[in-house]
Amino acid sequence: MRRKNDFIVYTLRKALVNYYLGKTVEIKIDRPIGSSHPKYSDLIYPVNYGYIPGVLGGDGEELDVYLLGIDNPVKNYIARIIGIIHRHNDIEDKLVAAPEGINFTKTEIKKILHFQEQYYKSDIEIIPPYKFISKKVINKGWSGDKKYCVITDDGIKYLLRITPKEKSANRENMFRIQKQLASLDVSMCKPVELGKCKEGIYILQTWIDGKDAEEIIPHLTNSEQYYYGLEAGKMLKIIHSIPAPKNHPDWEFRFNAKMDSKIKMYNECHIKFDGAKDMISYMNSNRHLLANRPQTFQHGDYHIGNMMIEKNKIVIIDFDRYDFGDPWEEFNRIVFCVQISPMFASGIINGYFDNKVPFKFWKLLALYISSNTLSSIPWAIKFGESEVNTMLNQAKNIMNWYNNMQNPIPTWYRDIVIK
């Protein structure tokens, strides 16, 4: 009779933890990162550790959960159960959770939880990884990531990006912010899963079944180009709603140092362009505009080349150069939009500012574009003569837009109000 009872208890215990694998739950953290074990003061928790309120585990207490992928202490967290620690010499099992979409391998989980699980004999069960039945290389972009169009065994198409280990330090943070942006209804390539592989860190994203915006926009009417620009500008405003981390380095100090570096790069470069002295003079005369600028999340490369059109809607892609800084600096790439469609570029600005563009924006934008232009020449040299000529022509156009830096409002801008 005792054996039968033990078997029933064991079966119910396993059924309980197995039920939660893959589920999203709210976790109450009672032992946050940095806290010590209530009985063994020398055991310090390197992860957040808590329980699912109201759910009893094998020991008669609430079901315990390790929370991975969060680097700071938290009190409560909604996360997905990605694994189970099946203990063989204990009366309870442990759940392993992580933020939505983030996964860890068995080896990683074992290493992270060794501080406490070393005292038990156990096996680790995790959510089975996606199985790809098709994998096609995508040869586009400048990021250095390997990109593939993949199809899973259930017939769903995804974008798979693999970032080399040496460049993967910020990918988990990028993934979390992309999740946040997706929840704000930004039309974008949405993050599905993040994990580690032999080559580095991979991110699985939704597949955009559309075409590159830079191929579509030029063939549309002026009003259609403008409306797509308005859409892109409104989305950029949402992207900038995410604030920079607290205690982020001061923007005025950071960007002044960046300008000094770019001026030095240009002065030491053997290739020059007409108007560079005017640009440098403008930059030096307007450094005061950098004071007290707000800082937010930045896409990092926001222009028409990182946009697609799917079902008549703009979709934003490639967040891999994300940063934090003055949101208005994000417009420094608008020169690439202007080369394709001045109407589209005007729409971005008017959509962002709801047709009320402050004059200070124009002055700062001229400064940011000048800074970028100076460094574009030294940057282009390693890519060959063709890329250098492209940047030289771009510098010439910019000088014409700004009348040799005499007018901060560029000549291509169209102040259109649609009622």
H-E string: HEEEEEHHEEEEHEEEHHHHEEEEHHHH
Largest sheet strand order: 1-2-3-5-4
Low-confidence stretches: none
Radius of gyration: 26 Å
Estimated helix fraction: 25-40%
Q: Mean pLDDT, rounded to whole units? A: 91
Give the class from helix and strand content and strand pairing: alpha+beta
How much of the polypeptide forms β-strand, as a percent range?
Answer: 15-25%
- Could you give the count of β-strands? 16
Report the end-to-end length measured between terminal Cα atoms: 81 Å
> Tally the helices: what do you get?
12
Overall shape: it is elongated
> What summary fits the major beta sheet?
5 strands, mixed, barrel
List keywords for this structure.
419 residues, alpha+beta, five-stranded mixed barrel, five-stranded antiparallel β-sheet, 12 helices, 16 strands, 36% helix
In short:
Strand 7 (132-138) and strand 8 form a beta hairpin.
Report what the structure shows.
The chain is elongated and about 90 Å long. The protein is 36% helix and 23% strand. The strands form four sheets. Strands 1-2-3-5-4 form a five-stranded mixed beta barrel. The termini are far apart. With 419 residues, it is α+β, with helices and mostly antiparallel strands.
